Amino acid sequence: MTSPREAAESLAANNVALGVVSGVPAPRARELQEAADFPVIALFSPYIHHRGRMDWFRDSEVVARTREALASGRFHGIGEVHFVASVGPPWDSPVFQGLLDLAREFDVPVLIHAESSDPEYFRPVCEANPEVRFQWAHAGSRLGPEEVGELMESCPNVWTELSARDPWRYGRFAAEDGELDEAWVRLFKRFPDRFMTGSDPVWPPGSSMRWDQADSGWERVGQFLDYHRAWLAQLPPELARKIRLTNALDFYAHALQEDGNL
Q1: How many CB atoms lie within 10 A of CB 118?
Q2: 3 state SS for 79-127
Q3: Which pLDDT tens digit goes with each residue over 227-246?
Q4: What pLDDT does residue 244 have?
């Protein structure tokens, strides 16, 4: 429905200065990177079919494919990978542990979609792997500032991103005019260097179970980013600047320095 060039143009038209993308299959992220006139970092997704998020950890070739992708120098992170209680993977999954080993070996982050309503499934993993940098997708989706803060306190190696935290999809944490609960403001001030924002171009609402299929989400990027900019405007300027961009630049500095195409 949207070509890589059209997606890149949509991001540029909305003043996006840095993109971090994954694709299914993974080369789609590279297509967007090559189409963009601004830095785009491609992450390697282990998913190869539409149900990949449910069974990726049962594919014995995942680790080998990921190693090859990272060794190519074209991908600078692993993910998004789903890590969900009652679905999997188990903590001791050889495939999951293999990906964490690769993250250490290649010094790249892991973008992880952890349990949306209970961080306890994720906590033992981030605590047991302090040298792995995790980017926690969607701020845990529906978790409030207290639960998010508890996990971030337990795991200094977890950075939290706020994509899809809007009124239309995973559940808003700010009013549509940008008004924020003071508890979120306190949490941002507590961890000013470990929050990032972004988008999750899946549309219409309720279609997250077919996130890998063509839809009109790229046409809505401006709507999603305007929502984030509204609540960012409620924060002190320096804090807003960090969450909007500079924390992500710092988190992905290694990739930006290594890849001559960025």
Answers
A1: 15
A2: EEEEEECCCECCCCCHHHHHHHHHHHHHCCCEEEEECCCCHHHCHHHHH
A3: 999 999 999 999 999 999 99
A4: 96
